Amino acid sequence: MKSLTQHLWFEVSGRRGFINITDQVEALVRQSQVQEGLCLVNAMHITASVFINDNESGLHHDYDVWLERLAPHAPTSQYQHNRTGEDNADAHLKRQIMGREVVVAITRGRLDFGPWEQIFYGEFDGNRRKRVLVKIIGE
Fold it and tell me: CATH code for 2-74+86-138?
């Protein structure tokens, strides 16, 4: 059994953003030399997300608009969590919708995606450094 654990670090300027991290994860799969196994990619912060979808700018815009409708940032007074001195309750809710992690099969040394699938880091409370855990296990 082989394994590899690495952390990817991101700092998104602005409140929200999406970063395609597929190439970075694929490079780690190659580095691991795992031919058959699993790759976990996990956001290690409760206001960030990792998800799989299409790498299409219109879709990313639609996500941003949709998430803001579901959990608008302002007015910050609408959230009980923000009464603790925070202003990021909406980011916690957005993360809950978009998910914490993804697991992708590794087949013949490559991430085994469906058509158009890519891995993304989603940031909902930016302007600070955050990390993503990548854990690869297999033969």
Answer: 2.60.120.460
